[in-house]
Write a structure and sequence with these properties.
The protein has about 325 residues and is an alpha/beta fold. The chain folds into two domains: about 150 residues, Quinone Oxidoreductase, Chain A, domain 1; about 140 residues, 3-Layer(aba) Sandwich (Rossmann fold), CATH 3.40.50.720. The chain has eleven helices and 15 strands. The strands form three sheets. Strands 3, 4, 5, 6, 7, 14 and 15 form a seven-stranded mixed sheet that branches. Strand 9, helix 5 and strand 10 form a beta-alpha-beta unit. Helix 3 crosses helix 4 and helix 3 packs across helix 10.
Length: about 325
């Protein structure tokens, strides 16, 4: 089968199309023909060695497709079932093996592209605003990179829960996308210091929560926007990791909370995984949640997808199409 392979850590140029042996499902696993693979920022960490994985590696964790074979002990899903997944290593390929317990059934009426675009970023947005900090009606929230894949979904979900969204973006196009997703106020962080502006927009109170997937360049100012006992949710580091800091700053800021969550801990059981996925898919089916696909690339152009993602030239979700 065709797959994208990385033989040495480095930049997007290390992503090379190759012919490799097709995988076989083991006990508790299914083999899936991949219809679309999701491109996520964590894939760049694997490619570059920030998160080391033994080489050679086939990147990617997310996608959607059709089950073509099942391993020993698997009763569901069966051959022919349409499934999506958020945590199957090697998803930049024509076929991938997925643990049956981590598959998400894709209902009729949800296309393969949308199904592939939702698992990682959709589940992330869901746990962020329903569990990490459970947004309540009237809560003021700050969402960084609000026109990105997680940001657009998170903005919509916060609005579904009755919260107010103050969004940060870097271009006029992204500002319009954030507003289209329901953002109440949009800050061009390249033109305005978002810290004081967020305070102004909240009448000096500050926000209940900051959702920060950017990291290094936004973290310090983000802390200054929080109300007493507010929560900084640092769920990514697109601009680089946050340096160590003195916890006394949390005290001085008003008994603040800081958390660094990850998806695996919020989908630890199949019941939790399915409950989150089913609510997200129900919102999509009801027309309450719009999934923006910002780019579709042939599998062979994984390099271009990574270059566009890291160059911040993208909005919404990027997909690789094996066929």
């Amino acid at each position: 089968m065709r797959a994208i392979q990385v033989d040495s850590y480095g930049g997007p140029d290390t992503l090379v199309a190759a012919d490799v042996d097709a995988p076989r499902p083991g006990p508790g696993q299914v083999l899936v023909d991949v219809a679309a693979s999701g491109v996520n920022y964590i894939d760049t960490y694997h490619r570059s060695g920030v998160y080391p994985i033994p080489l050679p590696l086939i990147p990617g964790q997310e996608g959607a497709g059709t089950v073509v074979a099942v391993g020993e002990g698997v009763s569901e899903p069966g051959v022919g079932a349409r499934v999506a997944w958020a945590a199957a290593a090697g998803s930049y390929a024509e076929q991938v093996v997925v643990d049956a317990a981590r598959t998400i059934p894709v209902p009729d009426g949800v296309g393969d592209d949308v199904a592939a675009a939702l698992p990682l970023q959709g589940l992330t947005a869901h746990y962020l605003c329903t569990s990490t900090y459970a947004v309540q009606p009237g809560d003021d929230t700050l969402v960084h990179a609000a026109a990105g894949g997680v940001g657009l979904l998170l903005t919509q979900m916060i609005k579904l829960r009755g919260g107010r969204v103050i969004a940060t973006v870097s271009t006029d196009e992204k500002a319009e996308l954030a507003r289209g997703a329901g953002a109440d106020d949009v800050i061009r962080y390249d033109q305005v210091d978002f810290g004081p502006e967020t305070r102004r927009l909240t009448g000096g109170r500050g926000v209940a929560v900051v959702y920060d997937g950017v990291g290094q360049t936004t973290f310090d100012a983000g802390l200054s926007t929080l109300r007493p006992r507010g929560m900084m949710v640092l769920y990514g580091g697109a601009s680089g990791p946050v340096p160590p800091f003195d916890p006394q700053r949390l005290n001085a800021g008003g008994s603040l909370f800081l958390t660094r969550p990850k998806l695996g801990d919020y989908t630890a059981t199949r019941d939790e995984l399915l409950a989150r996925a089913q609510e997200i898919l129900a919102w999509v089916a009801a027309g309450q949640l719009d999934v923006r696909i910002g780019g579709r690339y042939p599998l062979s152009d994984a390099r271009g997808a990574h270059e566009d993602l890291q160059g911040r030239r993208t909005t919404g979700k990027l997909l690789l199409l094996p066929r």
